[in-house]
Write a structure and sequence with these properties.
167 residues, alpha+beta, four-stranded mixed β-sheet, 6 helices, 4 strands, globular
Length: 167
């Protein structure tokens, strides 16, 4: 029985250790290229993104927070790029978030957050899911002023979402 408990603990610790991405180290190449094609922002489903923004802003207003402004440039271009990456892998993740965050900070942002999701068919469903997740809710309720969107469907017609928040 003790061997099983120790083995289970070892597996859990191994999972926790190996699940960290390199981006979490905070190290970044000084010559990192943060350029992005701003035309990527045009690829997002802006009807769905605008519905998400309305719902997020309604929630923020209900608790006394300021409204987020829509970013249709850099934050959305980075969001679309990340959503395409998730679609390619067919999984949601925050891979390379540090680079997206640093790229926006190089453009003047001081604080950056991100929510991702997939498979929801309506703005109401994805926002409801995020608000019922403590981590995602904290991001929605964070001290941000702007938000960008990467809302795209995969080849099977399922939505993948990236919402980047920044101040």
């Amino acid at each position: 029985m003790k061997i099983i408990k120790i083995s289970l603990l070892a597996v859990v610790l191994m999972f926790l250790i190996t699940s960290c991405s390199k981006d979490e180290s905070g190290a970044i190449n000084e010559e990192a290229n943060f350029s992005i094609d701003l035309n990527l922002a045009l690829e997002t489903d802006w009807v769905m993104a605008d519905e998400i923004l309305v719902l997020v802003n309604e929630h923020r207003a209900s608790i006394g927070l300021s409204e987020l402004k829509r970013d249709q440039q850099y934050a959305s271009a980075y969001s679309v790029e990340h959503t395409k990456y998730m679609i390619e892998l067919n999984q949601i993740n925050h891979d390379n978030f540090y680079q997206r965050s640093e790229a926006l900070k190089n453009r003047g942002a001081i604080h950056v957050g991100e929510n991702v999701a997939y498979g929801y068919t309506t703005a109401e469903d994805v926002v409801y899911a995020w608000l019922n997740s403590p981590g995602h809710r904290r991001t929605i309720e964070g001290s941000y002023t702007h938000s960008g969107f990467g809302v795209l469907k995969n080849a099977e017609g399922r939505y993948f979402f990236t919402q980047i928040f920044y101040r």
